[in-house]
């Protein structure tokens, strides 16, 4: 099997910014899902929609698997900045989307 390299043609990014929120569930309850990740995901998507940045060229928000920081969270990773954050409340989720929307404007 040939492993792809970065030498080939690049796929142009469809979004300027990509937000991943861990929505992993663990049987011991020590996880982002148990701390409200799905509600925060919905909150972030709703805010992005309200701001009109949930379109191509704007902001993409997806749930992800575990980031390995299960003792904290819900955990969020933002690209292309590479920022790792903990977002605990709807207000924090909205503030993050507000900041990212302003950065890509
Ligand atoms: S469950 Fe979210 S980082 Fe592990």
Key words describing this protein structure:
Glutaredoxin, four-stranded mixed beta sheet, 105 residues, binds FE2/S2 (inorganic) cluster, alpha+beta
CATH architecture tag: 3-Layer(aba) Sandwich
Unreliable stretches, pLDDT < 50, 5 or more residues? Answer: none
Structure classification: alpha+beta
Mean pLDDT: 93
- The CATH topology is given as Glutaredoxin
The backbone outline, from C-alpha atoms, is flat
How many strand units? 4
**CATH-defined superfamily:** Glutaredoxin
Q: How many distinct folded domains?
A: 1
Q: Could you tell me the strand content as a percent range? A: 15-25%
Task: Describe it.
With 105 residues, this protein is an alpha+beta fold. It has a single domain (17-104), classed as Glutaredoxin. The chain is 29% helix and 20% strand. It has two helices and four strands, in the order E-H-E-E-E-H. It has helices at residues 37-51, 90-104, and strands at 17-22, 59-64, 75-79, 83-86. The chain has a four-stranded mixed β-sheet with strand order 2-1-3-4. Helix 1 (37-51) packs parallel to helix 2. The longest helix is centred in the middle third of the chain and has 15 residues, at 37-51. The termini are far apart. 26% of the residues are buried. The site of FE2/S2 (inorganic) cluster (FES) has 12 residues, from loops.
């Amino acid at each position: 099997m040939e492993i792809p390299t970065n030498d080939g043609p690049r796929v142009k990014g469809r979004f300027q910014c990509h937000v991943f929120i861990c929505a992993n569930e663990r049987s011991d309850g020590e996880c982002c899902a148990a701390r409200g990740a799905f509600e925060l995901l919905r909150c972030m998507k709703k805010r992005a929609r309200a701001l009109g940045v949930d379109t191509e060229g704007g902001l993409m928000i997806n749930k992800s698997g575990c980031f390995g920081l299960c003792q904290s969270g819900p955990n969020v990773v933002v690209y292309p900045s590479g920022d790792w954050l903990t977002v605990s409340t709807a207000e924090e989720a909205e503030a993050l989307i507000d900041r990212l929307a302003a950065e890509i404007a």
